[in-house]
Amino acid sequence: MAEPLLQLADVHTHIGPYHILHGVDLSVPAGGLTMLLGRNGAGKTTTLRTIMGLWQASSGRIRFDGRDITKAATPDIARSGIAYVPEAMGIFTDLTVRENIVLAARSGPVDRNRLDWILGLFPALKRFWNLPAGNLSGGQKQMLAIARAIAEPRRLLLIDEPTKGLAPVMVRSMIEAFKALKASGETILLVEQNFYAASALGDNVVVMDDGRIVHAGAMSDLVADTVLQQRLLGLSLDAHQ
Amino acid sequence: MSTSPALALPFDETRRRGGFWNAILSSDRPRSKVLSAILLAILLLLAATPFLFSGSQPLSTAAKICVFVVLVASYDLLLGYSGIVSFAHTMFFGIGGYGIAIALERLGPTWGSAAVGLAAALGLSAVLAVAIGLLSLRVRAIFFSMITLAVASAAAVLASQLSDVTGGEDGLSFQLPPALRPAFRLLSEPLFGTPVNGRLIAYYLVFSVSLVVFLVLLRIVNSPFGRVLQAIRENEFRAEALGYRVVAYRTAASVISALAATVAGALMALWLRYNGPDTTLSFSIMIDILLMVVIGGMGTMYGAVVGAALFVLAQSYLQVLMAAGSAALAGLPILPNLIHPDRWLLWLGALFVISVYAFPGGIVGRLRQAGQ
Amino acid sequence: MSDMTADTAAVELPRARTDWLPLLLVPALGLLALPFVGSPSTWVTLTVAGLAMGMMIFLMASGLTLVFGLMDIINFGHGVFISLGAYATLLVLGPLAGWATADSLGLNLALLLLCILVAMAVTGVVGAVFERVIVRPVYGSHLKQILVTMGGLIVAEQLIHAIWGASPIPIPLPQSLRGAFVVGDIVMERYRVVAVAIGLLVFVGMQLLLNRTRLGLLIRAGVENPEMVEALGYRIRRLFVSVFIAGSALAGLGGVMWAFYRQTLTAGMGMEVMVLVFIVIIIGGLGSVGGCFVGSILVALVANYVGFIEPKLALISNILVMALVLIWRPQGLFPVARR
């Protein structure tokens, strides 16, 4: 079997005095959408930030696309082809929607066809093209954040809770957008608390608890196995339904 | 700051067995044999200066050290214990000086007018310290240093502008109460060969008030109040979460520190029989205070003693050394300029920068580390 | 994805966010001062003087506010670059003394330009060293930053003394920049007009850079969220070092203008003006170039008007302006969104 696109082996992360990740082993195969589930505080966001180099792994190995990126600096990790959408979205509110996307395309002007495709996914952005991004609603900011991540072709998208706090109608359109992204062949590692969204999208699923991976497998298996769901996600289901 | 062992006071080690020194020093001992020896030496030398050295120069140096110990220690309460960087400390120093000077000049050279002047100065300082504290309450913490800088510079310009009251750039010279004048004789016979005159009384007034204020400050930083200040310095949000009113504590620290600086200013004016912008208000004194507290050791109180003594001595005697060095290097380019006696501040400035990086506990922190 | 979604969300949306109020303060202040000043010609003279002063403060402050916004660094040593820029004019004025006394506007302006270029080069290089040696080891701790940059200031001022001597050095204004333009009964000093022109030029240049170029977008984005800029693949350190160098060079430029204005050099001249610089960046909103511009003009105009109407109040007027602005907007006129 081919080497996975992204592989974490026994990754530990400390933030100040706190030991957050206790040996995470995780692999993301190329193509398709891998869901990262788990209750609040399980270490999902820390995992994404550690991959991105925003927090340094204190031990363990992170390999991406055949390269060791454990100690790499964040800009270099981004340049190797990973895009990151943080939970807070990281929109530059002072810049216009256009400027946000222009900045995301590092290598030059955004490809016209690609831009049409992106704006096809998120038509609302077209309407506010030249307005400060701070004017957008929460859902529109989320769309911009994802549009920014795909402004140029990337090998891997890391997306942290894109449906958090969104109205149900927005959640549904977000799911549609992710389906379109999947169809276009993007590889995505998606953190989600919303099991409904997760089950609709995931090809693979990884469940975290207390800074460790407690389950990894196909999404369809987890959807079919309600006992397993209850055991792994009981807490998060209680909290979100 | 939290990395230095000198700054992290052990919370539980404090109220151990009583004893004389613990009572005097609020159980905050020097915690280093060398440091204890140095502090004791400074104390004894200062106490005996009038009888050990002749002439007015050593006595003036000693009085200046006493005043600056108080001034620097009160600044340490802000900087070292509360993590507040204020540039308005000389303003309070100046208020103390002007309070004494204006009162003694206008109301006549009596103890009563000195008391009135000091009381008025303390009142004004307290009001200003609260006002600055309240203004900074509305703005981000980082603005505080800049605002104090602006306020202090306005105060300095104001003092030189209101020449009717303050004497402007020339400052004010005034008469002391009779008991403090050189002509006054307490004993008709010299004691150990030193005449016991008003000058000697003035020196011991400066010395004893300085000692008392210093010990009071030491008590304050070791009180529960001082502990809260340090907790706020270490982690403002946690302290806030624990229910401490951060702004109230910080404003209180500013006020206490301002009052002590005012007393120091009053002592300075009494000793010099003069007060002017250059002796208490100028920005260069603010720089001196920073140098003393950082080189001596922030957040240790004793650092103020070591720093002030070292700095005032360097001011008087390092220049002699540098003059010799400069003369020896005469003829070389630039180099003689660098160790020209007027450039002594260059080297203390460099020492200051290195202190902040390499040993944030200053000399006191270094000594305590070495002793462990 | 349904268009419905976007539509319903759009209804509550775009209101213009341009914030005009602070901009209106400047003309309002001018008009308010007019009746107190009395004579319109005096008012024009005062206003031009205020604008010139404001431009010089802006030049000195703009770099500092950007450095703060981008990397959360508070540099109390910024004044050194002002003094250093001023002293750097000596490198040009020494060998080319003839250009200053020549009765030729061309040569005089060329001399001024050369002074500016040399000063910016010198302060840029020293800025790079200052960033590397003084500032870089203390990222993250404001307290240490203030102390260490203050220490850098002490050392650098002393070095200026060691190199150029401790006594004040007079520098002459180039021949044709002396004197004043007289239009009717309105008197405008020539050098002030030049200062306004240079200040405006730099401000427009900065605005174009910040709003029209990728570098400018990056700087603005970095002020708001440095971490995200890194996550997009840009090396923010490099960006920061460039901004620090540019900010130092701008302070050097301001120093040259300030030096010819005072016509005297002292090592402490930078630190003296830093008080105004700090007031300006507090008023403007830390990190905001536009706010810094408006704040500079505001402070300088108030100082000039008040200085004319009631000289004794001129000194406190700045503090008063600062207090009023902070009561109105505690984050400054143009608060910059932060992480």
Task: Detail the topology: elements first, then pairings.
The complex is a heterotrimer of chains A (241), B (372) and C (339).
Chain A: E1 6-15, E2 18-28, E3 32-37, H1 44-51, E4 57-64, E5 67-68, H2 74-79, E6 82-85, H3 97-104, H4 112-121, H5 123-127, H6 138-149, E7 156-160, H7 168-183, E8 187-191, H8 195-201, E9 204-209, E10 212-218, H9 219-224, H10 226-240
Parallel strand pairs in A: 3-8, 3-9, 6-7, 7-8
Antiparallel strand pairs in A: 1-2, 1-4, 4-5, 9-10
Helix pairs in contact in A: 3-6
Chain B: H1 20-24, H2 33-52, H3 56-82, H4 89-107, H5 111-138, H6 143-161, H7 163-166, E1 172-173, H8 198-221, H9 224-234, H10 236-241, H11 246-272, E2 274-275, H12 277-281, H13 283-296, H14 302-328, H15 335-338, H16 344-358, H17 362-371
Antiparallel strand pairs in B: 1-2
Helix pairs in contact in B: 3-8, 3-11, 3-13, 3-14, 4-5, 4-11, 5-11, 8-11, 9-11, 13-14, 13-17, 14-17
Chain C: H1 3-11, H2 21-37, H3 40-71, H4 78-93, H5 97-101, H6 105-135, H7 142-164, E1 169-170, E2 180-183, E3 186-189, H8 190-212, H9 214-224, H10 226-231, H11 236-262, E4 264-265, H12 269-284, H13 289-309, H14 314-328
Antiparallel strand pairs in C: 1-4, 2-3
Helix pairs in contact in C: 2-3, 2-13, 3-8, 3-9, 3-11, 3-12, 3-13, 4-6, 4-7, 4-11, 4-12, 6-11, 8-9, 9-11, 12-13, 12-14, 13-14
What's a concise summary of this model?
With 372 residues, chain B is an all-alpha fold. Chain B has helices spanning 20-24, 33-52, 56-82, 89-107, 111-138, 143-161, 163-166, 198-221, 224-234, 236-241, 246-272, 277-281, 283-296, 302-328, 335-338, 344-358, 362-371; strands at 172-173, 274-275. In chain B, helix 3 (56-82) packs antiparallel against helix 11 (246-272), helix 5 (111-138) runs antiparallel to helix 11 (246-272) and helix 14 crosses helix 17 (362-371).
